[in-house]
Amino acid sequence: MSTMAEARLRFFGAVGEVTGSCHWLQTPQGDVLLDCGLFQGGRDEERRNAADFGFAADKIQALILSHAHIDHCGRLPLLVKRGFSGRIYAQPATARLLRIMLEDSARLALADAKHANRRRAREGKPPIEPLYGLEDVEAVYDLIEPVPYGERQAVLPGLSFSFADAGHILGAAITEIWVESRGQTRHLVFSGDIGSRGTPFVVDPTRIASADLVLMESTYGDRLHRARSETIAELGEILENAWQSGGNVLIPAFAVGRSQELLYWLAKHHRDWGLSRWRIYLDSPMAVKVVGVYREHHELFDAEALAEWHGPNNPFKMKNLKLVSSVEESRALNDVSRGAIIIAGSGMCNGGRIRHHLKHNLWRPQCHLLFSGYQAAGTLGRALVDGADHVNLMGERVKVAAQRHTIGGLSAHADQNGLADWYGGFANRPPVWLVHGEDPARRALADRLQQQFQAEVSLAEASSEVVV
Questions:
Q1: In terms of Cα–Cα distance, which of 347, 334, 417 is closest to 384?
Q2: pLDDT (tens digit, 9 = 90+) per residue, 387-410?
Q3: CA gyration radius for the chain?
Q4: Cα–Cα distances in Å, from 24 out to 8, 11, 74, 172, 441?
Q5: pLDDT per residue as tens digits for the range 58-100
Q6: What are residue 263's phi and psi, to 5 degrees?
Q7: To the nearest 5 percent, what fractions of the chain are helix, strand and coil?
Q8: Residue-range domains of the chain with CATH
Q9: What is the DSSP letter of 74?
Q10: What is the DSSP letter of 90?
Q11: Which helix (H) or strand (E) holds 410?
Q12: What's the pTM?
């Protein structure tokens, strides 16, 4: 437990990058973590995930989770494995999604370890252990305490918090924290990931009136998204061109948020785009489970999505939609050469069933590959977006002849205008520390906030310390 007379914030992830969200709040009463996410990308990131946290897990009293994306929650089982035993506070929908995300992550960790150990055995090296297992995920879930939006929750003496809707994915939260520091109550706001206005299913991000310090994401701090209406029109055009090409459409998509939004637009424009001629597959056991969580928590939907939910365009009830869970059904899609829209994980093509579909379709000129989400440096998705002519897939070198499309207007993250608009809700213009963004994005957003609001803006650095 900390013995300092003031609260301090230190940064252990999502600093100059968009994965590995983890921030350590040290207070006179005890220590709390904000998120504990996986680093995503290449082998360097895999090594960072297995390295020491930079703090003692068993000294952390509690953890407040912003949302269930793996770059925010993915190291929770490792945290517990290394000694954390405090409460994990999460919005109820996030709590439901968390098990789905972490169980999938544990299975991927096991598969990665098995693959690596086959190679290590041939090289005469000792085996390695997976990052964590399903038993560690179960231990995480035993510590979860759901907290609804708007309910103030005491964590430690002199430290409490409340969640507000971040408009990012179902259950995503902005966290307001009140902590006693330097003889007064300080008000810290952690943005989590801020969503784009008008994103289907979720309400627009909550604006907070005041704070003493803001910890803010900056993923798209250096760019503006296309209008969503233009993006949807482009999606319809791509599907029409793909039909004329006579191939399949492959869409790598995150299981939480993006997969459901794509189904929303396909249902809404089912007649306009002539989608009855297509077969639509959601080929992701995890995304199928997430659909179940959406059904359970549809009270969180925005008004338009609620109307669609109760009307004829329910996105999960399209007649030509197949929710694919079994391996056999997924493999059968390898024999489909045309007329299929296949939405599959992972969103950055680093794992999951999308890699099998890429192997069987990338070399076909009539195939259309559609990217609708962020592709981190070092991922297969980024290599494809950047124009790679050949890629390695499951031990084979595959020529890339498919037609590639990138549509940015479906992002679940606010762009620079959206981020500036959210910060503009603070009437007192509090100082800002930017995290969860690559440095060009952070610098651009810092310039925007300084010029528009005369804000005091700093870029968080790894292990650096801020007095709250």
A1: 347
A2: 999 999 988 999 999 999 998 788
A3: 22
A4: 8, 6, 16, 19, 23
A5: 999 999 999 999 999 999 999 999 999 999 999 999 999 999 9
A6: -65, -35
A7: 35, 20, 45
A8: 8-223+412-467 (3.60.15.10), 228-406 (3.40.50.10890)
A9: T
A10: E
A11: none
A12: 0.90
